[in-house]
Amino acid sequence: PGLDFGSSSSGTTQRGTQARAHCGTEPVKCAMFGHARSKFQSSSPSPNNPGFLQKNNNVDEKGRIVGPFTEQPSPKNLLTRDNERGSRFRHTETDFSNLYARDLLPAKNGEEPTIQFLLEVVDILTNYVRKTFDRSTKVLDFHHPHQLLEGMEGFNLELSDQPESLEQILVDCRDTLKYGVRTGHPRFFNQLSTGLDIIGLAGEWLTSTANTNMFTYEIAPVFVLMEQLTLKKMREIVGWPNGEGDGIFSPGGAISNMYSVMVARYKHYPEVKTKGMTAAPRLVLFTSEHSKITWKPQKFSHHYSIKKASAVLGFGTENLILLKTDERGRVIPADLEAKVIDAKQKGCVPLFVNATAGSTVYGAFDPINEIADICEKYNMWLHVDGAWGGGLLMSRKHRHKLNGVERANSVTWNPHKMMGVPLQCSAILVREKGLLQGCNSMCAGYLFQPDKQYDVTYDTGDKAIQCGRHVDIFKFWLMWKAKGTSGFEKHIDRCLELSEYLYNKIKNREGYEMVFQGQPQHTNVCFWYIPPSLRDMPDREEKRQRLHKVAPKIKAMMMECGTTMVGYQPQGDKVNFFRMVISNPAATRSDIDFLIDEIERLGQDL
Amino acid sequence: PGLDFGSSSSGTTQRGTQARAHCGTEPVKCAMFGHARSKFQSSSPSPNNPGFLQKNNNVDEKGRIVGPFTEQPSPKNLLTRDNERGSRFRHTETDFSNLYARDLLPAKNGEEPTIQFLLEVVDILTNYVRKTFDRSTKVLDFHHPHQLLEGMEGFNLELSDQPESLEQILVDCRDTLKYGVRTGHPRFFNQLSTGLDIIGLAGEWLTSTANTNMFTYEIAPVFVLMEQLTLKKMREIVGWPNGEGDGIFSPGGAISNMYSVMVARYKHYPEVKTKGMTAAPRLVLFTSEHSKITWKPQKFSHHYSIKKASAVLGFGTENLILLKTDERGRVIPADLEAKVIDAKQKGCVPLFVNATAGSTVYGAFDPINEIADICEKYNMWLHVDGAWGGGLLMSRKHRHKLNGVERANSVTWNPHKMMGVPLQCSAILVREKGLLQGCNSMCAGYLFQPDKQYDVTYDTGDKAIQCGRHVDIFKFWLMWKAKGTSGFEKHIDRCLELSEYLYNKIKNREGYEMVFQGQPQHTNVCFWYIPPSLRDMPDREEKRQRLHKVAPKIKAMMMECGTTMVGYQPQGDKVNFFRMVISNPAATRSDIDFLIDEIERLGQDL
Asked: Where does the record place the modification N6-(pyridoxal phosphate)lysine (chains A, B) (predicted)?
């Protein structure tokens, strides 16, 4: 079952004969918003009633000038047009419509088409890079899932039995970028990871060309050493003597945090590895109540990762105890101590405390030193989740916000967030050597393996929960080489200055209300925009309910319009507010001004 | 602590004034082996006594011709030489020695240097691609860790406070590739993942340029839909009706297998999510005893992943029960049933059975249908680990080896192995919808989130244990488009034919002994090479001990010589043997012949 190679003929170029007019690069006017808003409240879109956006598209289709992604009717012209726009490649007259994957290397005589094909791809990519930094380009060209699934102007996502020509593959590459989101655009503020670092990009291209994995020194000698040296440098910056300790790069902050809980468990109850959780007493974990953020999938919520870890690792989410925070979102140490004492009285064993350095929504830094005192007093593992805030360690001006981090037993630090490294790049650092291996190695005899010709202590395979492990280090190493520690420092200081600019701009501005008072600790600026129609309303439930809908509506219009992107969410009993974050080195004050103008333009009539 | 921006001046070009002579592309003669072997038995290398290899290098340094990576004394010439070797780029006269990362986009006037820099990188990469497929190039240029750490010919791995010039960055890129391993080389057979697929490579370059993550439709609309469609297609091929079910791409087979255990636990004991493992009875898991492979980090050992999962998830490794296998490495179903009954009698609850489709060493396929019968009888979750063997589902000729896979509750299938997709690309497929989400979602209210403007069921964030998730789908989707299902089928059939060629060539050849009898089920061919000096020895412990050392010695010489790479390991009471695997589309019969010749050349005097 499942395999039936029939007469499918989807392998031919599917759009060659269609003339297409796409969205251009002119500033988006959004003249359709009057109409659009009237549809906005309607039910979710359906194929027959795509609503808001479909209208948007229709209007656009008439008004848009021929843009950079427009293709000419004849397939032969699809690829030559880039030449005219300043490509630096010596394009040959290669006709990709008669070439297929099977004609590329390792095929005989495959070298020439291989290089030509890769150069065409690079031409598409460098054009994309150029436009990413061009403010007259939209951040995204939004379409609903059903629209993309139906095949936008011939962009067919379905897989088939027969091959497509390389020409079609190149068109597929263009379309993939066209309908995606420019996460490096100076006005993309939606995630903690933004920006498109050119050195990091080059590093990723090289990494994928090397196509190896981090399992052993044998197959990744250079990358394994780079990882070792970089982790040591990070531990030095954390403040551990001589950078001693251990660590590994993992597939993201959630997994890094999971490692920290695993290692803590192994340190205190090593028998759990062989006998399971039933061999331990009832263990409890602690983290900030900012974990309780109502789940919004447009946000990365790293606090959630501790909750996920407690479920995955067999602790149970009920054994994760949430800690009260102050008005700024920082854990109250006295609450931790009270809850530790309470847990012990109930017969539980407090094992692990997560202190967040840079919370997802507020950007709050928990007071690490006070928490460390309590951890020492009650013999608990202290983990610092610096996925978002760890980057501030690179700044002499801001690293004091993590004071005490050197007392942590483990630290999560995601260079792919505040430091602008391409996704994915997340480190888990562990102060005590040997625990990662003890926890994850499946064979004690490993260390004494005598028959390899090199020093096998460089192999990382048995430190990881993975077998194969992606090379996440090279881009980061290369960026560090290219910028120096000082370059990262400048980037971080600049982002924090920008967020201060935003904060100062709106803190007393009419129509804005800050979610918490005082200057933010990180680049997170949380605020409500209050449309004129709500400003004079009494502060009651009706106003709350209407305000709750404002940010989602503005965000939706931003996306339809494609001009900018910023996240929102509720928090506790606070209704939906915007959470602005800045990690993009391309953003300037003018982009901050633009964002505020755009919010006001889109929100004034709500 | 940790940050001290002193007077470090490592930011300048470090090698401009050194003349360097590197390893060329001529066939390696290995004339030094007579000498080398005498050093081979000596203790592990030290900075003062690097042994074998250091000698090797010295000899080479005199004999090598000027090779492609050789740089000229003057820094200005470092980059212009590629021009002479047929680069297709219109290089400008850009002098990268005075340019830094800060001069690239988003810097003002950064577009020109950005494009020039990226084109230089691409020039380095396309040259690397070319050489990867060139059999006159070495597979690797081996150096010991301490040698690379000391800085090979100026290749300085240390990070510094001040930035390096872009020229130095480009040199760093070259050196990184130079001292790495060409995993796409036609004679690289060391891993289950080999080869360098050009379409997949292009896909990875695009993926890193798009630099987004799979968390939500909002920030990865195209990739999210591609993942959805591709997973559905894979489920159809597995044989689930209409491709129904669920799934996700995860960071490798070990994590995919971990998902399967988690989902099984959630299905049978959902309360473990909130209350922890103590809420469940003593649960046991079953997998093949081929898990017991003596741990060799040069191998991917996916069976280990079930053991790792049992430790990570809190079951405890002692609650993983290993199943006996037949002589070919296939689980004996009767042994499973006996052990299930035994476990129940001891008060344990049998939860989960892993059937391996393509074991790491023998390439064995467990009899899924017989195992499925037992799973149904005792109400156990059936997982099929097809990380290595799943690709055979794409072949009408070979898919019968996975007969019964459609009865599995979950399936791991790594396109980055047998299907040649670049690392990482691993899917976990689950037959029952909703379990992945139920298991990993941290908020039940999620499904009813009303305020996004699109259909949020496309968001994948709460199915995953990760928050951010790398885009692993695009390269695979693009390869499928470019090859069609039929292209994957051809690739798989060809690899199996090649391994049959190898098997037929050595099964009766003097000096070879097969580790198991009969034609292998997968491309794994396991054999001993018996040097002439051992052939007439009686079959006693002394012969065993000497034979145990043969494969490691030959492998070490192969690596020093750089001509080819193949793995070895012991298994149970069998001493070290070679495990040949073929997944590389570039490999031909001549490469198989070369491997055999090389083993005999290097091993004849052992």
From this structure: 417
B330 or B66, which is more confident? B330
CB contact under 8 A, A157 and B226: yes
Asked if A459 has any chain B CB less than 8 Å from its own CB, the reply is yes
The CA radius of gyration of chain A, in Å to the nearest whole number, is 26
Q: What CA–CA distance (Å, rounded) separates A559 from A202?
A: 29
> What residues of chain B, 40 to 79, have a C-beta less than 8 Å from chain A?
40, 44-45, 52-53
pLDDT of residue B462: 84
For chain B, the straight-line distance linking the first and the last C-alpha, in angstroms and rounded, comes to 54
Nearest to B453 among A161, A175, A556 (CB): A556
Rounded Cα distance, B153 and B176, in Å: 12
pLDDT in tens, A69-94: 333 333 333 333 333 333 344 556 79
3-state secondary structure at position A381? strand
Q: Is B316 in contact with A274 (Cβ distance < 8 A)?
A: yes
What is the Cα gyration radius of chain B? 26
* pLDDT given for residue A462 in this prediction: 84
| pLDDT on residue A541 | 94
Contact by Cβ (8 Å): A92, A116: yes
Alpha-carbon span B142 to B558, nearest angstrom: 10
Torsion sign, CA atoms B510, B513, B517, B523: negative
Note whether B159 contacts A229, CB cutoff 8 Å: yes
Q: How many CA atoms lie within 13 A of A96 on its CB side?
A: 30
Distance in angstroms (rounded) separating the CA atoms of residues B193 and A220: 13
Among B110, B278, B452, the residue with its CB nearest the CB of A277 is B278
- Test B466 with A221 for CB contact under 8 angstroms: no
Size of interface A-B (CB pairs under 8 A): 595
Q: Maximum distance among all alpha carbons in chain B?
A: 79
Residue A435 has pLDDT above 90, yes or no: yes
Instruction: Tell me the Ramachandran region of residue A213: left when phi exceeds 0, alpha when psi lies from -120 to 50, beta otherwise.
Output: beta
Record: contact B484-A161, CB cut-off 8 A? yes
Q: Is A30 left (phi over 0), alpha (psi -120 to 50) or beta?
A: left
Closest CA to B420 of A215, A201, A104: A104
Q: Are the C-beta atoms of A422 and B208 separated by less than 8 Å?
A: yes
| Minimum CA–CA partner of B458 in chain A | A145
Quick check: B468 contacting A, CB < 8 Å? yes
| Structure-token match 């800050």, residue found | A514
Interchain CB contact of A420 with B (< 8 Å): no
Cβ pair A446:B239 closer than 8 A? no
What domains can you pick out in chain B, each with its CATH number? Answer: 231-435 (3.40.640.10)
Interface test with B, best of A159, A431, A460 (most B CBs within 10 A): A159
Q: Taking residues A439-462, what's their average pLDDT?
A: 72
Q: How far, in Å, CA of A51 to CA of B455, rounded?
A: 13
A307-320 pLDDT, tens digit each = 999 999 999 999 99
Share the mean pLDDT of chain B: 85
**For the segment B487-535, what is each residue's pLDDT rounded down to a tens digit?**
999 999 999 999 999 999 999 999 999 999 999 999 999 999 999 999 9
Say what the pLDDT of residue B63 is. Answer: 30
